[in-house]
Amino acid sequence: MREGPDIARIASLVGDPARANMLNALMGGTALTASELALEAGVSLPTASSHLSKLMDGGLLTLASQGRHRYYGLAGAQVAGMIEAIIGVAEAVGPKRVRPGPRDAAMRVARVCYDHLAGEQAVAMLDRLLDRKLLLRDDNQIRLSPSGASHFSALGIETGVKARRPVCRACLDWSVRRSHLAGTLGAAILDKIIAEKWARREKDSRAVVFSPTGRQEFERVFLA
Amino acid sequence: MREGPDIARIASLVGDPARANMLNALMGGTALTASELALEAGVSLPTASSHLSKLMDGGLLTLASQGRHRYYGLAGAQVAGMIEAIIGVAEAVGPKRVRPGPRDAAMRVARVCYDHLAGEQAVAMLDRLLDRKLLLRDDNQIRLSPSGASHFSALGIETGVKARRPVCRACLDWSVRRSHLAGTLGAAILDKIIAEKWARREKDSRAVVFSPTGRQEFERVFLA
DNA sequence: CGCATGGTTCGATCCTCATCGAAGCATTCC
DNA sequence: GGAATGCTTCGATGAGGATCGAACCATGCG
User: Fold this and answer.
1) Which of B6, B10, B137, B202 is the best substitution to test chain A (most A C-beta atoms within 10 A)?
2) A183-195 and A212-222 are packed helices; what angle lies between their axes, rounded to 10 degrees?
3) Would B178 be classed as within a structural domain?
4) Does a structural domain hold residue B182?
5) Please, which pLDDT band fits residue A10 given cuts at 50, 70 and 90?
6) Do residues B65 and B83 share a domain?
7) Interchain proximity A2–B40, CB inside 8 Å
8) Domain limits at A176?
């Protein structure tokens, strides 16, 4: 009846519970093998394989073959953003639990969004970085200021533009409803947080839990 | 396996072609009757009715009964945002047409997004309003400045806060990938554009086409 | 009241697609 | 080479759900 982009095709890919679980798992940012995703989705390996090839055909996933392992990952930040948007609606219209569970609370504070940090911590961080003029915002375009470049460089975070992917990008946070920092810089900061052991990834969840001292360090460096 | 928000449920609602067409039609912002939506989706009335009740159950639509007419509309800006996000991915991964058709071009320039203007024109307008300090941006929060309040009031646009809905909001544009203005002010501006006959809605499309003089007027008032 | 219009509910049909077991490829390790 | 691991393809089964015609409510008009 009307042509245009085939939104039903994309949405129906996400609309199957098994595939939705897989995508949800991949929102953690790390690429996973078919067997891990099968486990995650609670289906057999053949079933998972079939789903994965559909998601590949649909352009939602990328595949990296390494020897006999095949790692599936989200196709990009745009796909991740779409899934966040769907999660946001599902949260809003879903049966509102009288009281959010503990894991939910942890997720709100800090979680992984594809490859960078999201949640209250991340939103506060971006605010602070903008305040300190280490980053400059111009709408959704976020640029690194000269002082910011040297600042991050001093922290051991390289910000040279190598890839086509932007260094900084704003990403809308579904729990806070404000932006946090994505892009290669956002990814590098998350890497540092994990590498410094300021926080650890919660097993089988997107939640990121800071240790008491780790939180202090994080606040000292990024929220000062 | 994992609980959390039921994203598959929401996505599968959008994942049916008939329902996707209906939602797409409702992205125009005007509420439509069941028969109009049936026509739009290319299905019979009973089928459409069944789809509509599913969308209602899913919380994606609102219903306003007026006499024997029942008007269905999108449940809110968050739902509209999700659909825009899905459209964005579908555009990106979809079969890239060698050359975007004329309607596509018009859509990129100016279109309706739920109840406000989107597209290049809208993005340019927000930029300009921020430059002129009529609006103040603080992340996705956009506020009306005192000078902005009087400015819009002089244009006959009331900006008093009546509803719970925010006056200003940033809305991400899928074609330009930058923000444009949503909220009651965004809606009021679109209303003015139509009321002043600066532009007309393209029939059966979200495209908004400016007349030569209308464009001049629009640019004089909002892009000066 | 009776008719027309707009809409929903019911029932039956049909088809897509998710699922899994078994078999088949590919890669690596011994 | 042979065995083991990781994954995909094939084939058969089954269930959910999209679809429409017909019948059924509700509202408005004369």
Assistant:
1) B10
2) 140
3) yes
4) yes
5) very high
6) no
7) yes
8) 96-222
pLDDT the model gives residue A69: 76
Asked if A70 and A116 sit in the same domain, the reply is no
* Closest Cβ opposite residue B88 in set A16, A82, A126: A82
Asked if the structure places residue B1 within a domain, the reply is no
Chain A residues touching residue B32 (CB < 8 angstroms): none
Q: What angle do CA A110, A115, A117 make, to 5 degrees?
A: 20
- Is B103 a domain residue? yes
Q: CATH number, domain at B39?
A: 1.10.10.10
Residues A28 and A187: their CA atoms lie apart, in Å, by 12
Q: Do A139 and B179 touch (CB under 8 A)?
A: yes
Q: Do residue A64 and residue A119 come from a single domain? A: no
Total structural domains in chain A? 2
Structure confidence at residue A134 (pLDDT): 86
Domain boundary residue, one of A42, A75, A108: A75
**Residues B27 and B59 occupy one common structural domain:** yes
What residues pair up with A172 in beta bridges, in sequence order? A179
Higher pLDDT, B81 or A201: B81
Q: Is B53 (CB) below 7 Å from strand C?
A: yes
Q: Which nucleotide is nearest to B38 (CA to C1')?
A: C7
Res B98: pLDDT: 43
Protein residue nearest nucleotide D5, by CA to C1': A68
Q: Mean pLDDT of all residues in chain B? A: 82
Q: Which two tokens stand for residue A5?
A: 């982009």
Counting one residue from chain A and one from chain B, the pairs whose CB atoms sit within 8 A come to 155
Residues of B in contact with A94 (CB under 8 A): 5-6
Cα distance between residue B218 and residue B121, in whole Å: 10
**Final residue belonging to a domain, choices B20, B47, B75:** B75
pLDDT of residue A176: 66
Q: Give the rounded percent of residues in chain B with a pLDDT score beyond 90.
A: 19
Q: Same domain for B106 and B19?
A: no
CA of B45 to C1' of D29 (A): 23
Tell me, what DSSP letter sits at residue B123? H
Helix (H) or strand (E) holding B97: none
Q: Is the dihedral of CA A142, A144, A148, A152 positive or negative?
A: positive
> Nearest chain B Cα to A40, which residue?
B1
- The half-sphere exposure of A150 on its side-chain side, counting CA atoms within 13 A, is 3
Q: Do A5 and B91 touch (CB under 8 A)?
A: yes
Q: Find which nucleotide's C1' atom is closest to A44's CA.
A: C20
Q: Does B214 lie in the same domain as B128?
A: yes
